[in-house]
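Lecture notes, unit on binding sites. The following record was shown on slide 14. It pairs a sequence with LLP.
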Amino acid sequence: WSSTAHKVDGELTVGGVAVADVVAEFNTPAYVLDEDDFRARARAFRDAFAAYDVFYAGKAFLCTTVARWVAEEGLNLDVCSSGELTVALKAGFDPARIGYHGNNKTYPELRRAVAAGVGRIIVDSFIEIERLGQVAADLGTTTRVMVRVTAGVEAHTHEYIATAHEDQKFGFSITSGDALEAVRRVVAADGLELLGLHSHIGSQIFDSSGFEVAARRVLALHATVSTEVGVTMPEMDLGGGFGIAYTTQDDPSDPAQLATEMSKIVEHECRALGIAEPRLSIEPGRAIVGPAMCTVYTIGTVKPVALDGGAVRTYVSVDGGMSDNIRTALYDADYSCTLASRESQAPPMLTRVVGKHCEAGDIVVKDEFLPSDLAPGDLLAVPGTGAYCRSMASNYNHALRPPVIAVRDGVARVIVRRETEDDLLATDVGA
Ligand code: LLP
């Protein structure tokens, strides 16, 4: 839950606004974004990593309002597509503070980014290095570049695996020598200025040992570049991936602790390698926006289903589903939820919260104990839906993507409006 969320007589309140009042005004399903919580998490990263640059990863969730909050809190922005860049520029985000990712940026996309003055472009293939060199030449300018490398660490939620990591689409392999070759090509290209190496090991990571191994490997390459290529790179980026609590079983990452651990490793390694410390940057997305948002649904049907062995699971259908939160279906993600509109003393029952889509896998919350007097019209709230829910939302079954309502100091305002059926028909040229 976000920091201002609490219940008053069973009614959930966020940002000083009763969720039931948000619903009365804006209907369900809706994402409710706690502005103070978002800003506080952004600031916590900025303050903890005061000696670093913090890039908010817009893929987790981005709209113009949020881009402005990011700027106001002093963070930079990581975009990974032309669409995200459009939102950032529309918000007036300083392009010099934007990092642009992606493994398949086209010539027009790169040209537009360079022309707009994007601060750094993270290159991911030899073809892209050549393409970007061409863009810089065509525009008669110089652009800053980071080289995305594969650190040889694949991080998972609770562990990391140092095998099977090379077989994926991102980055230049350090072990094969491609990463060093990429550096050489960037250095050799007119119009490309090498800022440093970039590594991102995964997402929803709790175990900092993955970052530690990655930092060591990337710093070793950083040192090799100084000795073998004769170039001292000023920066290094260790990516994002810091885990958040989705259920009470998870232990969320603490920015201050992360900062201390990362700085220690980098300091120690640089001393051991006899090199100057590069300026570090990180790219948290989920850890900033994830806990700041919840999704509110209205219950439509309640259906007990007998399980083998005589137990019962009650399927509670809500007015959204996999179109507003694909993570349960896609990653088997765990969510929790709560009755948000009233107090109930009824004994708990085992429930599964499902959506309204034509698909059995359309599950929002796999298992939750909810009061046994749940009824149509009750509101359910699912916490921790700020990251990769609205941003991965779809129009499956021609669902209308829900609005994002920002709440703060007792005021609720729409920052992304609900889609309408006219929006759906707008792209259907036969309509
Ligand atoms: N930097 C880079 C280069 C990334 O690829 C990502 C995420 C991030 C930063 C931000 O990671 P975060 O701090 O948010 O974990 N859709 C998946 C997550 C995909 C993450 C992709 N890259 C999910 O819903 O879990």
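Take-home: The pocket of LLP is lined by residues 57, 59-60, 78, 101, 200, 203-204, 239-242, 283-287, 327, 331, 387-388 (CB under 6 Å).
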